[in-house]
Amino acid sequence: MKKSEIILMFIQLPLDFILLLLAGWSAYWLRFSDWAVAWRPVLFNLTFDNFTSMLVVVAVVWILIFALSGLYSTDPNRKLLPDLARVLLGCSAGLSAVAVYVLFRQTPFDSRFLVVFGWGFAVSYVCFGRLVMRGFKALLYRSNIGLRCVVLIGENNSTESIVSVLTTRRELGYDVLGVYEHLDEPTSRILAELDLDEIIFLNPRAHEDEALRAIDLCNERHIVFKYSADLFATYSSHMRVQPLAGVPIVELKRTALDGWGRVLKRVTDIVVSAVLIIILAPVMLAVAFIIWCETGRPIIYKNERVGIRGQNFFTFKFRSMYQKDSTGSQFGADGEKAEAREQELIKKQNSKAGPIYKIANDPRVTPFGRWLRQWSLDELPQFFNVLSGSMSLVGPRPHQPREVGQYHAEHKRVLIIKPGISGLAQISGRSDLSFTDEIRLDVFYIEHWSLFLDLVIFFKTPFILFKKRRVL
């Protein structure tokens, strides 16, 4: 999902919560209005503050019911009428829950007015809120804000219908950048230059390798791949079928880590990394002091890595090598000389096969740096990467640009999510895994992501990450 869609989806939840509170307050104020009191005197003693305390709990329960009803689905193309029907269903289920609670608690005051009118106001307010959000989103789309840039592969009647719908109904949120009959090499080069969000594959005469080429392109660029439901076998266990201009379209989802999963993971990253930075601050200060005493500054080594969507960023590590042997732009001309020496060491002492490398008996590591690597303490500053959003607590291992440059198309699937401090590959063999096994485990994690899996990896990490290892 585009970041703008996630933001709008996230705003919907607190908006519904506020509207539910307003519905309850409206029912309370109406109950104490002159005409309501004249119609039937108030027989209970419930202050506004006490009522609000109860209302907050009820609103939280209703939000949970809304979530179970599918009102916070990550599908950006949800229809309005089914959404409003779910609002009615969710509010009615919430009303039933309140009625059962009142029945079993045998409350001494007459609260039926508040309950019934609260339900009516809730349905009205939440439906109105959904209409406002729909209108606001449509206004953004018509102003060319947040549009999903898409190209279609395959020219037939379905293609013409889809292009017509997407271009005339801007509120759907699409911007069609082009239509191509086949996805051949020239077309692939053209698409590589476009800032795409989605590819819709509709060519019924295409060979399967053409579709696989499209999938590889989407994996490499982190582009959503959609295709006509009657074309090919399913390529992933995560998929979503939705009609587009009367044509059933399948969205190939590489991971469940999208929408609310992405929001939940980011919130977890922020909270946990902030807490760990505070807890580990004395350790990090002690390590920094020892590095400064041993070899001076800089204490933090910024190593360029490739993150989500192939974007480069700098990981933070405690410097474990001598300054003259540290590579990267951080060290200027000396860094370039150090990189040339590193290439010589890789040729002579590389202990890994494939795109990644590991120098055995690395002479560039300081005595204290060797100890840091044995206990993985050099990676502690990466919690700041997590806090800033360039990394996650759990995810694939981030590799250097020159390593990623040697990836095959299928290897680039690991770039569709943020890299992590720890991950399934890290706890399954650390740096002793082959590149093929590491990629296989990372792809498994991406395709089977769940919060429970993240928790398992996170709690296993201290027993693996801080376990003394042999530094080659």
UniProtKB/TrEMBL annotation:
UniProt membrane topology term: Multi-pass membrane protein
Alphabetized, the UniProt keywords read: Membrane, Transferase, Transmembrane, Transmembrane helix
User: What are the transmembrane regions?
Assistant: 7-30, 50-72, 84-104, 116-133, 270-292
- Molecular function as annotated in GO: phosphotransferase activity, for other substituted phosphate groups
**Residue ranges constituting the Bacterial sugar transferase domain according to the UniProt record:** 265-466
Superkingdom classification of source: Bacteria
One matching Pfam family: Bac_transf
Instruction: Give its localization.
Output: Membrane
Report what the protein is called.
Bacterial sugar transferase domain-containing protein
The root-end lineage is: Bacteria, Candidatus Magasanikiibacteriota
